[in-house]
Amino acid sequence: MSLVCLTDFEALARQRLSKTSWDFIEGGADEGITRDDNIAAFKRFRLRPRYLRDVSEVDTRTTIQGEEISAPICIAPTGFHRIAWPDGEMSTARAAQATSTCYITSTYASCTLEDIVATAPRGLRWFQLYVQTDWELNKQLIQRAESLGFKALVITVDVPVHGKRRNDIRNQMDLKMNLMLKDLQSPEEKFIPDMQLSSINSSFCWNHLSWFQRITQLPIILKGILTKEDAELAVKHKVQGIIVSNHGGRQLDESPASIDALMEVVTAIKGKIEVYLDGGVRTGNDVLKTLALGAKCVFLGRPILWGLACKGERGVEEVLNILKTEFHTSMALAGCRSVAEINRDLIQLSRL
């Protein structure tokens, strides 16, 4: 079967993965309303193209935190990539390096940070942290990532507790051991997580950000901001960026779709820090709409795992390249010759 769009990879990945693994990757919290709305919300916007412009050359390059990337399309942090492919995050990292794509590596990566760096030494990587109750462990993880050349610290803020994911409960999934051992292609292989999972820190709050700023020189990005109030607090606390995200609809169900929350956040921060988005991006038009509404780039979660499940490293490359090609086409058809020309005045989205 020819795979020509991201949903083609979704369909094939569903066939390839066990039910338990598929349910883990695709599952949303509670009724899955936010998960589904992340995708549907993009279709409530329409593009207004401008024609008779010279688009014989279209440049998709941009920068994030001062680093150039080939297009405003990056890889979001998702854990346990070895669910989808034996080499897990190492395959993902090689694909990111090959396509000049930023890859945010999860706290719960199923390969060591050292192995990920060794397999793709030239790749642009950020490190995502779930703040743990053990503050010494937090410090060790951050300093280890910094010493390995990760370029930013992404702190996830929307998991004070885990959302209720019904299918995971029905499947009696235990990420710490059972699922990983069952779904590795070599059952005899003993999987040991890179770190001992301690508890998510439910007391983590704004005042703790100064502690992180004291122990690292990395730019700090907050992932999971959805409101103008929190966006304003992020600016006040001098972080360097925000990822507008609802955790793929896996945390608080019936929270806003990411693209809907984006407008509120962008308006609140007034260009003072960079804003990014994850959640629901499936087409080049989705990327164009996100940038038109003020985001610097998008991050892909589930589609990366679909590519990994289908073809490993090559599948991730294909997913990224398909979306980049679609985005290039969308830019040309909308009359945009560079990412800098994508803005609300030029695109003028109309909500239906």
Automatic annotation (TrEMBL):
<protein>
    <recommendedName>
        <fullName>(S)-2-hydroxy-acid oxidase</fullName>
        <ecNumber>1.1.3.15</ecNumber>
    </recommendedName>
</protein>
<dbReference type="GO" id="GO:0005782">
    <property type="term" value="C:peroxisomal matrix"/>
</dbReference>
<feature type="binding site">
    <location>
        <position position="250"/>
    </location>
    <ligand>
        <name>glyoxylate</name>
    </ligand>
</feature>
<comment type="similarity">
    <text>Belongs to the FMN-dependent alpha-hydroxy acid dehydrogenase family.</text>
</comment>
<dbReference type="InterPro" id="IPR008259">
    <property type="entry name" value="FMN_hydac_DH_AS"/>
</dbReference>
<feature type="binding site">
    <location>
        <position position="128"/>
    </location>
    <ligand>
        <name>FMN</name>
    </ligand>
</feature>
<dbReference type="GO" id="GO:0001561">
    <property type="term" value="P:fatty acid alpha-oxidation"/>
</dbReference>
<feature type="binding site">
    <location>
        <position position="247"/>
    </location>
    <ligand>
        <name>glyoxylate</name>
    </ligand>
</feature>
<feature type="binding site">
    <location>
        <position position="156"/>
    </location>
    <ligand>
        <name>FMN</name>
    </ligand>
</feature>
<keyword id="KW-0285">Flavoprotein</keyword>
<feature type="domain" description="FMN hydroxy acid dehydrogenase">
    <location>
        <begin position="1"/>
        <end position="352"/>
    </location>
</feature>
<feature type="binding site">
    <location>
        <position position="130"/>
    </location>
    <ligand>
        <name>FMN</name>
    </ligand>
</feature>
<feature type="binding site">
    <location>
        <begin position="77"/>
        <end position="79"/>
    </location>
    <ligand>
        <name>FMN</name>
    </ligand>
</feature>
<dbReference type="GO" id="GO:0010181">
    <property type="term" value="F:FMN binding"/>
</dbReference>
<dbReference type="InterPro" id="IPR012133">
    <property type="entry name" value="Alpha-hydoxy_acid_DH_FMN"/>
</dbReference>
<feature type="binding site">
    <location>
        <position position="245"/>
    </location>
    <ligand>
        <name>FMN</name>
    </ligand>
</feature>
<feature type="active site" description="Proton acceptor">
    <location>
        <position position="247"/>
    </location>
</feature>
<keyword id="KW-0576">Peroxisome</keyword>
<dbReference type="Pfam" id="PF01070">
    <property type="entry name" value="FMN_dh"/>
</dbReference>
<dbReference type="InterPro" id="IPR013785">
    <property type="entry name" value="Aldolase_TIM"/>
</dbReference>
<dbReference type="GO" id="GO:0003973">
    <property type="term" value="F:(S)-2-hydroxy-acid oxidase activity"/>
</dbReference>
<feature type="binding site">
    <location>
        <position position="223"/>
    </location>
    <ligand>
        <name>FMN</name>
    </ligand>
</feature>
<feature type="binding site">
    <location>
        <position position="106"/>
    </location>
    <ligand>
        <name>FMN</name>
    </ligand>
</feature>
<dbReference type="InterPro" id="IPR000262">
    <property type="entry name" value="FMN-dep_DH"/>
</dbReference>
<feature type="binding site">
    <location>
        <begin position="301"/>
        <end position="302"/>
    </location>
    <ligand>
        <name>FMN</name>
    </ligand>
</feature>
<feature type="binding site">
    <location>
        <begin position="278"/>
        <end position="282"/>
    </location>
    <ligand>
        <name>FMN</name>
    </ligand>
</feature>
<keyword id="KW-0560">Oxidoreductase</keyword>
<dbReference type="InterPro" id="IPR037396">
    <property type="entry name" value="FMN_HAD"/>
</dbReference>
<feature type="binding site">
    <location>
        <position position="165"/>
    </location>
    <ligand>
        <name>glyoxylate</name>
    </ligand>
</feature>
<keyword id="KW-0288">FMN</keyword>
